[in-house]
């Protein structure tokens, strides 16, 4: 069974400082991080992971343009195991993110997945704010990573406007998320969840039973989580071999095959 971690970050200054978590508690996290591709590959090898979808911390902490270039430098060190994502901005202010420029650049660089940090980058993820890009992302079936650390209302609103948008939820907190996520699974067929924060007994099995194993992607959100925890939660989830294979990598590979660039 092939294992691909669907959400890892390369780069320092990620979490080793005080942060306000999803429940508005101030916490100080100290975790191991990967300075570069080599250190991330060592973590993947230690856990028996074949590959990973990666971002670079500078995509969020510094500047999307800078981070998008930097992640490609790291992915180039192991293109058969590391798969890049890019961060988007509104084309009305940054013309290089217009679909007619962004999509060819993605195709040339082998990028099939995107991320958005609207609150951090100060824009509205909406039809008014960037409809010319969101509509094309939806039509091209490009998966868009969204975290409710920037608010659940943002996710609910963008899906109301773009109901066929392919969204991967991640970094949603270790406490139960079902009252937020289950309505989204029920309403929108292209909403998926990365399993990194899903470390409570029974969560993976419950989602498989209610909505199917096709809605979950194995992932750790490393370095917010060490990779071993989410991996143990998946392997010990008590689901069947076919469901396990779907979550481990088949669902992710199916999403890649559906992207039209």
From TrEMBL:
Listed InterPro entries: Amidohydro-rel, Metal_Hydrolase
Positions of the Amidohydrolase-related domain: 63-256
Gene3D superfamilies: Metal-dependent hydrolases
Pfam families linked to this entry: Amidohydro_2
Positions of transmembrane segments: none
Protein name: Amidohydrolase family protein
Organism: Cohnella hashimotonis
Lineage of producing organism: Bacteria, Bacillati, Bacillota, Bacilli, Bacillales
């Amino acid at each position: 069974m092939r294992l691909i971690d669907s959400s890892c970050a390369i780069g320092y200054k990620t979490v080793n400082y005080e942060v306000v978590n999803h429940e508005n508690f101030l916490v100080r996290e100290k975790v191991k991080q990967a300075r570069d591709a080599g250190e991330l590959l060592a973590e993947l090898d230690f856990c028996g992971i074949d590959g990973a979808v990666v971002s670079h911390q500078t995509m969020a902490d510094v500047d999307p343009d800078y981070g998008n270039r930097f992640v490609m430098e790291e992915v180039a060190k192991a293109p058969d195991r590391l798969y890049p994502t890019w961060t988007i901005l509104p084309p009305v202010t940054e013309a290089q993110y217009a679909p007619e420029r962004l999509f060819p650049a993605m195709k040339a660089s082998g990028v099939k997945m995107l991320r958005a940090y609207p609150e951090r980058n100060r824009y509205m993820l909406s039809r008014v704010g960037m409809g010319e890009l969101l509509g094309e992302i939806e039509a091209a079936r490009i998966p868009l990573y969204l975290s409710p650390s920037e608010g659940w209302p943002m996710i609910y609103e963008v899906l109301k406007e773009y109901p066929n948008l392919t969204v991967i939820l991640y970094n949603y907190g270790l406490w139960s998320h079902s009252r937020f996520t289950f309505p989204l699974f029920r309403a929108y067929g292209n909403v998926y969840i990365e399993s990194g924060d899903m470390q409570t007994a029974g969560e993976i099995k419950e989602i498989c039973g209610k909505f199917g194993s096709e809605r979950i992607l194995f992932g750790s959100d490393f370095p917010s989580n060490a990779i071993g925890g989410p991996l143990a939660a998946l392997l010990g989830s008590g689901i069947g071999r076919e469901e396990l294979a779907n979550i481990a990598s088949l669902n992710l590979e199916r999403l890649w095959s559906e992207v039209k660039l």
